[in-house]
């Protein structure tokens, strides 16, 4: 019974952070760490003291995490990046805000004595004596200590203090995974209340030792147990006096922690079957439950509920039917064609989620080259005469500056070229569009044409399609390519303006160049010839897109399923060993990797024939590698077995922390059900005659750190987690259970009103009664779930939006 927790962090923004550059500004970015491990790096926002990131993330974690911290950094090209400040939220703080933490949080100084991480393995014993007992403390080992030295490691030793006496272990050089196996004894009187303090330190020859963390043990507790052994989380020292609050600026966050217990699949079958029957009946007649869910869902929750329902029905092969049901509901309450799909209804939110889940790869193939060109050219583009800055443009010849008219003319040519290229790419992409997307657009087109059949509404079916394809999918991706994974960084001000104007142009085309859209911004007139031509192109494209028969749809779906699109692909650097000794001399060679549901493969170029490197079923772990091992903090290792069953390790280098975590996430997801997954691993390398991490001399020695197979990022191309989606829908329905019972009473008394209508052969109150019974059964199943027991080891889902 896995238990999942989720943390939402949304819309991060910093305010009034101190200037770190000579020009009076900063180049801030944000690092998100969970228990001091970096998992996310936002894009850098250049030359500002008030950055806005608006990036969204979701992270799955084990339940043992303690805190999530947000570090605001200043990027520096010539030296190490400066730390501006941080905001740290503990798990207890987040749990105290069930609806989420939202607001401005003051940045605090980063105190080295508080930047501790890792765990220490202790065995504690109380040996009774005639007059006084003996307190025996065995310091066995530590793992994942903070690297304090330039070599990416530390030289740790442990100081044990009790009742005024202090004893120390030996020093282990160059390791964050030391092993001591040393025991210390102290006299202790019966009933003594003094605490035992175990401190980890990094030894330095020429400067003061660095604090690595401490554990304070309540000796009184040991009198009953006599012995205790385990891993103890290292804690920071007492906080020192800080600067006055607010001097470092503030960070705006929306963070939410959820705790979900996911039951076995069989428990959700009645709920899934009930909702699926609703969709199947809804395509033939009026729906009952889905309208109620929409009616009782607040605007704030609608996007989340739409996404959960959409993913559930995708997993059941009913996404097209679910969206068709929503189309019918929307059309039944729409009288004016020009307001169709313009509100934030369940239909619009579900269709947005559908396009992101099913059409993101398609979007990348169309938009990717155009977006890359805009970023690379960095041309000054402006159509609004009131915003033209001639001084920013440069000269047209050797000496003469360009005039405003020349700037506007050149801008129109540039935008027309980009718009034309985009429309041409779109029009050539009919066959590349996923079959399920084509089928859904076809159903939307037909439903709208049935609802508005008159000649005066001949463009309405086309606008219905473009309202989603152009206005809610392509245009937002153009304006914010970073948020749609089209670019790694946000655009600078000049590129951002070009993208905004291009997005406006594609919106005008999507609106079929109506007088209303033209009247909004008259200065867009220079693009009208391209827009008018684009309207004709787009109508022709949509006509071909929706011209798909049921047999062709099935053939397309079958062809797509045989293609097995990669889970993740891209360039990585693979370790190549030179010389006779293991890792005596090493280098990394750039290759193009592709991860499918069968294997991790590589090729010399993206178009070359791929060779399998690792079979998916043979993966045993995918983990990070210590920075000191290869001089980079972005190296991962894939531990696997070859065809003879012997363990092997592939070392792959990524270009940034985000790419590293994305690859680790993808590898862990596709191998999560493999047999023989490792529980521990070596974060270093076996160099010469020992492991660089823990200095053990046996290459087959048990790993010195625990694996993190449950730590994954949630992405748009993730495999569907049917049980989790069902649990999230159940949780949402549980929140509206009182309103559902009241509606059931009204319907049973014959006084119900609203969108629910009688379906074929079944009264609306009957189906609602079934739903209420399903909720009750699930609530009882949760109360009996062993996941609620303290002895269980639940999973934790950490969802981040930033």
Which descriptors apply to this entry?
single chain; 802 residues; alpha+beta; Immunoglobulin-like; GTPase Activation - p120GAP, domain 1; 4 domains; 7-stranded antiparallel beta sheet; 4-stranded antiparallel beta sheet; 19 helices; 30 strands; 35% helix; globular; disordered N terminus
Written description of the protein model:
39% of the residues are buried. This protein has four domains: 3-108 and 248-259, C2 domain (Immunoglobulin-like); 119-233, Immunoglobulin-like, CATH 2.60.40; 339-548, GTPase Activation - p120GAP, domain 1 (Orthogonal Bundle); 568-713, PH-domain like, CATH 2.30.29.30. Residues 1-9, 559-563, 579-585, 752-761 and 788-793 have low confidence and may be disordered. By secondary structure, the chain is α+β, with helices and mostly antiparallel strands. β26 (686-687) and β27 (690-691) form a beta hairpin. It has 19 helices and 30 strands. A seven-stranded antiparallel beta sheet has the order 21-20-19-18-24-23-22, with helices on one face. Strands 1, 2, 8 and 17 form a four-stranded antiparallel beta sheet that branches. The two termini are 29 Å apart.
């Amino acid at each position: 019974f896995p238990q999942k927790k989720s943390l939402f962090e949304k819309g991060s923004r910093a305010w009034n952070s101190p200037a770190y550059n000579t020009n009076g500004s900063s180049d801030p970015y944000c690092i998100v760490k969970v228990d001091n491990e970096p998992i996310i790096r936002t894009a850098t926002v250049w030359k500002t003291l008030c950055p806005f990131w608006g990036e969204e993330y979701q992270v799955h974690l084990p339940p043992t995490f303690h805190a999530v911290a947000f570090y605001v950094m200043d990027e520096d090209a010539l030296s190490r990046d400066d730390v501006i400040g941080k905001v740290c939220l503990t798990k207890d703080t987040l749990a105290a805000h069930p609806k989420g933490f939202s607001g401005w949080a003051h940045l605090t100084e980063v105190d080295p004595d508080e930047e501790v991480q890792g765990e220490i393995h202790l065995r504690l014993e109380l040996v009774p004596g005639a007059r006084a007992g003996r307190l025996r403390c065995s310091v066995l080992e530590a793992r994942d200590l903070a690297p304090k030295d330039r070599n990416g490691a530390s030289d740790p030793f442990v100081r044990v203090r009790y009742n005024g006496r202090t004893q120390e272990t030996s020093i282990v050089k160059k390791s964050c995974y030391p092993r001591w196996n040393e025991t210390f004894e102290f006299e202790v009187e019966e009933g003594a209340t003094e605490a035992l303090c175990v401190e980890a330190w990094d030894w330095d020859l020429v400067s003061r030792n660095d604090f690595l963390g401490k554990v304070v043990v309540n000796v009184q507790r040991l009198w009953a147990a006599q012995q205790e052994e385990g891993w103890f989380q290292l804690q920071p020292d007492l906080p020192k006096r800080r600067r006055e609050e607010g001097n470092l600026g503030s960070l705006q966050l929306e963070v939410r922690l959820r705790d979900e217990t996911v039951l076995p699949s069989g428990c959700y079958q009645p709920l899934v079957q009930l909702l699926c029957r609703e969709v199947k009946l809804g395509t033939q007649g009026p729906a009952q439950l889905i309208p109620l869910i929409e009616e009782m869902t607040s605007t704030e929750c609608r996007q989340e509920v739409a996404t959960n329902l959409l993913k559930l029905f995708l997993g059941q092969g009913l996404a097209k039917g679910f969206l068709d049901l929503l189309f019918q509901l929307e059309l039944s309450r729409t009288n004016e064609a020009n307001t169709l799909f313009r509100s934030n209804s369940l239909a619009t939110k579900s269709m947005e989620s559908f396009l992101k889940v099913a059409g993101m790869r398609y979007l990348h193939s169309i938009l990717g080259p155009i977006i890359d060109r805009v970023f690379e050219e960095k041309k000054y583009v402006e159509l609004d005469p009131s915003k033209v800055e001639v001084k920013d443009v440069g000269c047209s010849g050797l000496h003469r500056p360009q005039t405003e008219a020349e700037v506007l003319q050149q801008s129109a040519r540039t935008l027309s070229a980009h718009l034309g290229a985009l429309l041409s790419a779109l029009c050539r992409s009919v066959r590349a569009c996923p079959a399920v997307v084509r089928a859904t657009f076809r159903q939307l087109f037909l439903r709208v044409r049935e609802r508005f059949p008159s000649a005066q509404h001949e463009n309405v079916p086309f606008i219905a399609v473009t309202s989603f394809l152009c206005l809610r999918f392509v245009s937002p991706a153009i304006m914010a390519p970073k948020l749609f994974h089209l670019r790694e960084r946000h655009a600078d001000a000049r590129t951002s303006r070009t993208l905004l104007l291009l997005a406006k142009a594609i919106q005008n085309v999507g609106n079929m160049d109506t007088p209303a859209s033209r009247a909004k911004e008259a200065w867009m007139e220079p693009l009208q010839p391209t827009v008018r031509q684009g309207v004709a192109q787009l109508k022709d494209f949509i006509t071909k897109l929706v011209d798909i028969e049921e047999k062709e749809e099935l053939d397309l779906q079958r062809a797509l399923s045989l293609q097995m699109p990669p889970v993740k692909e891209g360039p990585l650097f693979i370790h190549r060993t030179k010389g006779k000794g293991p890792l005596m001399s090493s280098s990394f060679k750039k290759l193009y990797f592709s991860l499918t549901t069968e294997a991790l493969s590589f090729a010399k170029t993206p178009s070359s024939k791929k060779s399998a490197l690792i079979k998916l079923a043979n993966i045993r772990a995918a983990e990070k590698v210590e920075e000191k091992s290869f001089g980079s903090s972005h190296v991962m290792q894939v531990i696997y077995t070859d065809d003879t069953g012997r363990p092997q390790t592939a070392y792959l280098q990524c270009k940034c922390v985000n790419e590293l975590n994305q690859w680790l996430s993808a590898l862990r997801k596709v191998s999560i059900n493999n047999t023989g997954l490792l529980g521990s691993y070596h974060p270093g390398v076996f160099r010469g005659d020992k492991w660089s991490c823990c200095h053990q001399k046996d290459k087959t020695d048990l790993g010195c750190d625990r694996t993190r197979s449950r730590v994954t990022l949630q992405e748009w191309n993730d495999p569907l987690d049917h049980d989790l989606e069902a649990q999230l829908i159940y949780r949402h329905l549980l929140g509206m259970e009182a309103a559902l019972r009241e509606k059931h009473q009204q319907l049973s008394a014959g006084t119900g009103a609203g969108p629910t209508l009688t379906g074929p052969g079944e009264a609306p109150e009957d189906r609602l009664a079934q739903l209420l019974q399903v909720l009750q059964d699930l609530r009882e199943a949760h109360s009996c779930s062993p996941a609620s027991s303290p002895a269980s080891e639940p999973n934790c889902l950490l969802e981040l939006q930033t």
